[in-house]
Write a structure and sequence with these properties.
The protein is mainly beta. It contains no helices and 23 strands. The strands form 5 sheets. The protein has a 6-stranded antiparallel barrel. It has a 4-stranded mixed sheet with strand order 4-5-1-8, with no helix packed on it.
Length: 241
């Protein structure tokens, strides 16, 4: 009998529509080698028998930007969401907002830097308790709007205390998190759906939004660094970290 150990489960989503990536649409490599993971409906990739440690998963699909994700395996089964962002050839609809963001540091391009972009989604999400303390892995959440699932990465907007949180499950008003809060937060803080980007060697990244909006820019080492008003069509902006 052959025993297979599941190391990681990745849920692939279209970063523009939020829908699962169809079976067979993405090609994968792990640590520089081609990989054929087990695929399941709903955009799931199942990686098996990985040695413990840090791995680099690279995903490519027609119409999307290349996506690079680090995986840390060796303990419990790793579960992570990966969004593929629109690239050349993606059929963006009329009215969408496209952003070319240049990131600088001391007037030089900030190459290969992790940047998060967040904007309002289909549901309004706010903290619904007086205080959510650092170290807690769940909190009460007020939701108004669409009944669609709210799992995934979010920017918890709280000024200098803003941070990225990953919502794993929402049962009633209680949201469970993939990792404990790093900071204290108070009632009414807004949560916005967020996506992770990396700048290229010129310090640039490209993103697309379904309509004109305000996009929040978050850098892990600096926190919330800008709020960008984006119009429908092409937008070019520069931020400094």
């Amino acid at each position: 009998m052959i025993h297979v150990r599941v190391s990681a489960v990745c849920r692939l989503r279209d970063g523009f529509t939020g829908r699962p990536i169809p079976l067979g649409a993405a090609s994968c490599s792990l640590d520089g080698r081609r990989l054929r993971p087990v695929e399941k409906p709903g955009g799931y990739l199942i990686l098996t028998d990985l040695p413990p440690g840090r791995h680099l998963l690279v995903l490519r699909a027609a119409g999307y930007q290349e996506e690079r994700t680090e995986l840390e395996t060796g303990g419990a089964i790793l579960e992570t969401d990966v969004t593929l962002k629109p690239g050349a050839g993606y059929p963006l609809p009329p009215g969408s907002a496209r952003l070319e963001l240049r990131v600088t540091q001391k007037k030089s391009p900030a190459a290969d830097r992790l940047i998060w972009l967040a904007s309002p989604g289909g549901a309004e999400l706010k903290l619904a308790q007086t205080r959510a303390a650092a170290g807690e892995d769940s909190f009460r959440l007020f939701r108004r709007g669409t009944a669609a699932p709210v799992q995934g990465d979010h920017l918890l907007c709280d000024g200098k205390n803003s941070e990225i949180v990953t919502l794993r499950e929402l049962i009633g008003e209680t949201a469970s998190l993939a990792a404990p809060l790093a900071r204290d937060h108070g009632r009414g803080c807004v949560l916005l759906p967020a996506q992770r980007y990396r700048t290229d060697e010129a310090g640039a990244l490209r993103a697309a939004f379904r309509a004109a909006c305000t996009a929040e820019v978050y850098a892990p080492e600096r926190g919330l660094i800008a709020s960008l008003a984006l119009a429908a069509g092409e937008n070019q902006q520069t931020v400094s970290i």
